[in-house]
Specification:
This protein has 102 residues and is α/β, with parallel strands linked by helices. It has helices spanning 3-7, 29-34, 49-59, 71-80, 97-101; strands at residues 20-23, 39-42, 63-66, 84-87.
Amino acid sequence: CPPTAISDGWAAGLADPVAAVASGWMHVRAFAKQRGAQLPLVISDHADWDELRMTILETGCEELWVTHGAEAAIIHWARQHRLGAQPLRMVGFGEGEDEAAE
């Protein structure tokens, strides 16, 4: 969840939540501490195409959910490599403002 979800009480109902933060900056201890990361995950959200594809294959995953970026390109590539792949659509996020106004 985004960091704001923790501060507004969203995680209060979870039994034993662990604050994990995924960022290339998590390799800097001071930054991880500043962000309140109990589990700092050193994963950059700015990946080069070759490294991204290599990492996906190295995980051994069978299914890939793409949250943003060039969704069509990475989904096409994943399916060529016999991986299940689909965009992860957030309900009410990224929808046109015209629909919300109606």
